[in-house]
Structure formats: C-alpha cells, structure tokens
Amino acid sequence: DTGVSQDPRHKITKRGQNVTFRCDPISEHNRLYWYRQTLGQGPEFLTYFQNEAQLEKSRLLSDRFSAERPKGSFSTLEIQRTEQGDSAMYLCASSPKPSQGNEQFFGPGTRLTVL
Amino acid sequence: SQQGEEDPQALSIQEGENATMNCSYKTSINNLQWYRQNSGRGLVHLILIRSNEREKHSGRLRVTLDTSKKSSSLLITASRAADTASYFCATAVHNYGQNFVFGPGTRLSVLP
Fold first, then answer.
1. Residue B55: count of CB within 10 angstroms of its CB
2. Is A70 exposed, middle or buried (0-12, 13-18, 19+ CB in 10 A)?
3. In whole angstroms, what is the distance from residue A111 CA to residue A90 CA?
4. CB contact, 8 Å: A25 with chain B?
5. Model pLDDT for residues A42-65, shown as the tens digit of each residue
6. Which chain B residues are Cβ-neighbours of A93 within 8 angstroms?
7. For residues B59-77, average pLDDT
8. Are the Cβ atoms of A109 and B88 closer than 8 angstroms?
9. How far apart are CA B107 and CA B35, in angstroms?
10. Count of other CB atoms within 10 angstroms of residue B77
C-alpha cells in the first residue's frame, strides 16, 4: 500500500447527472476525510469518518452530497443532480489513530467538471 | 470566512534565498499544520506544531507558533526550484473534532 488512492482521477459530466467517487485510504488508517478544492483556494472540509461512522459533516455539504464508508475501509462520495458550481477537485485524506499522529495523507484527487 | 489566512498570497524568490510565509487564524486551536501542494496534485504534510509548542524544525523548514497573536510562520531556508508550490496552513479547531480548516495558501515560485 503506497498511499491514498482515488478513482476516477477525472470526471466530466452533464448538469443534472449523478456522480460517485471512490477513495481507498491507507489500510491501517481509521480516519478518513473528504475535501473540496477550487482553483486558487485551499481545501474545504466536507466530511469525516472514524471507521465506518460519519462523525462530522460540513454545513457546506448540501443534501445532494452523500458519503459512505460501509466497512470502515474505502469510502464513496456521491453528488446527485450535479450543478456547474460542483466543478472542483475532490480530495480524500486519511489519518492513523490520534495516538499515532494527526498528519493527513492526501490522495491525488478527483477533478470534476460539470458542463 | 476561512479560519486560516496565509500571507503573502504569492511570493517569488531566487534559488538559495529564504522564503517566509505567515498564517493567521481566528479561534483556539489544538495544533497547526503546514502542507505543500504541487500544481494539480494532492497535498503533502510538512510539519505539525502543537498549541503548547513555540518553534519546530524539520530539515530546511522552521515553523513558529504564537498563540497570543494567533499566528504561525513557515520559513524555508536555502530554497530550491523544487520548492515551487502552494503552501497551506491547516488548523484543528478546539471542540470541532476533526474539522480541519485550510487557508487559501501562499503560492511560492523559486526561480533558478
């Protein structure tokens, strides 16, 4: 396991379509984060999982967004009825248990373009 | 509004010079972290400083934290062209669990 992986790396979709992204964290990490990043800005926190439990969710996350981590390993982020404003880079990160450090390891991201 | 704000927004220096970036934040924090992002790629963790620490070193990096001023600085010494990237500070806010807040970043260009 060489790091956090995300799939797909790029996604182009038409407005109104649903999209789903996948994140595979580092295997022994129990914490997983999703962020959204637009050009020239820092990442914006979307949601956080500890194992399979979704413990935090940003107020930025509208009801069109849903994330899951069913077995406490990989996670999916789904956006329903996409809008042009959803175009961004979606980043996933994972962290080990707090006792092992708070560093976040980021994946390469999924770049979403909504036409 | 963002918790962390980096300053300057952009910085251009010659190879071999030192680069200093600053980060200000608004609320109490547990720790502050600095990350680097090369163009179009994921973020890489550089260094973490806890709220009870004042200075930390890692290789050519030096980070300071002043909780009374709610600010941090990242110094990169003897910069190299490979240091060209965007640098972000991220804060873990008290009572917000794992909600990490990133600033808009400083875009550093190191010219050969």
1. 11
2. exposed
3. 6
4. no
5. 999 999 999 999 988 888 788 999
6. 43
7. 96
8. no
9. 12
10. 14
Q: Do B98 and A31 touch (CB under 8 A)?
A: yes
* Residue of B9, B39, B41, B43 best to disrupt the A interface, most CBs of A under 10 A: B43
Smallest CA–CA distance, residue B92 to chain A, in Å, is 9
Rounded mean pLDDT, B14-20: 97
pLDDT surpassing 70 at residue B4: no
pLDDT in tens, A76-115: 999 999 999 999 999 999 998 776 667 899 999 999 999 9
Q: What is the DSSP string of chain B?
A: --S-EEE-SEEEEETTS-EEEEEE-SS-EEEEEEEEE-TTS-EEEEEEEETT--EEEETTEEEEEETTTTEEEEEE-S--GGG-EEEEEEEEETTSTT-EEE---EEEEEE-
Report whether A114 contacts A83 (CB < 8 A).
yes
Put simply, the answer to whether B102 touches A43 (Cβ < 8 Å) is yes
Q: How far apart are the first and last CA of chain A?
A: 35
Task: Look at residue B8 and tell me whether its pLDDT is greater than 90.
Answer: no
